[in-house]
Task: structure prediction
Amino acid sequence: MTARILVVDDVAANARLLEARLGQEYYDVRTASCGADALDAARAWQPDLVLLDVMMPDMDGYEVCRRMKGATTTRHIPVVMVTALHEAGERIAGLEAGADDFLTKPVDFETLLARVKSLVRLKRLLDEWRNRSAPMRGAEDEFVPPSVAGARALVVDDNEADALAVQDALARDGIVAGRAGSEAEASTLAAGLTLDLVVLSLSMTVDDPLRLASRLRSAEATQDIPLLLMAEPEQKGRILRGFDLGANDWVMRPIDANELRARARNQIRRRVYQERLRNEMGHAIELALIDPLTGLYNQRYLMRDLAARLASGRDGALALVMIDVDHFKAVNDRWGHPVGDRALRMVADALRGRVRLADSVARYGGEEFAVVMPGASLPDAQTAAERLRAAVEAMSFLPDGATPYPLTISLGVATREAGGSAEQLIAAADRALYEAKRDGRNRVATATTAAAD
Ligand SMILES: [Mg+2]
Result:
């Protein structure tokens, strides 16, 4: 999983060290040496994560974080505050400024990578929800991180005093937490309550906490509940085992209440985004953004999805493939519309089954289809389009139930370089599609080849 990481530190050597280490892990890294540069880079480059030094002249990390979280263009980017001292006061200030997590200097690289991975995953989920729901939300609706107040948690620890400290920390964010002192108690409570978080102590002695983790993950009612582990520094092996079993994050003892709060908030929000994503998809059908014949998105959704993706600050690759079924009129004329509809459904299923999860497939109208491919370069999209072409050609369409009839498609590919608006991009892909038709159908043409004509 690659991602863009902005490293902010006023000491150039610190920034370079992190840049080199993260670069080795194939992250795309940029550095900034002061608050003003960091804000500019966050706005213009749209990183997936910011590692932010607290102690800087001019503008300190708290102020940078406050400004990032106050601006609509940067509010959604996770911020990890890198604090020089292990001081609770610093973390409270960081939480109040809106920080998503903390690291203590000197930075332990293994811990850093785990934090980066966890936060980038959360960001991806949020991006997905924002992109998918953008066509349904107005452009003026800005993103506000959901509050965690009122969320329900269960703290599983046989040490009552330790559990109480965790319950108190969570209560400061309005999270209502109960306690279980044994596996049996935890299983009963988890099955009976709608929980948003389980905090599990790996230091339990009455039962094996990892067995409980495994049970939570295998039961349908509890398998999606975020699971946060609490561990002693020497329990690294147990933490890794816990991750194998499906734990989502951990905090090290002695527990820093503010670090725990940050991780708990992130995990609860991740669950909220996941649920929103599910609900928004249900909502799409209600808003008639789905084509009833094929179950694909319709043209209205496609236009809004494209416009939202093109307008988002991200300058990443994006491709559009326009598709037309060859000689479709002949099918309708010869066998009638019900058979024609069956052909369209078969083509739709073939397309849907061969695109990536991130792609949106729509029925553009009549026998025309379109696929939006976020992140795809021209060669990527060309390869993907060729796969779609071959898949349709390989179908066995039997219009009269016995004799196969060769159904094929022509495809036109364009990338966002072809134009700034959804209409321009569609026009470019359409021109390429026209060329594919002209050159004999059942083929892929690209907007660059069409332009070179
Ligand atoms: Mg500094």
Remarks:
- Residues 449-453 have pLDDT under 50 and may be disordered.
- The first strand starts at residue 4 and ends at 8.
- The two ends are 39 Å apart (CA to CA).
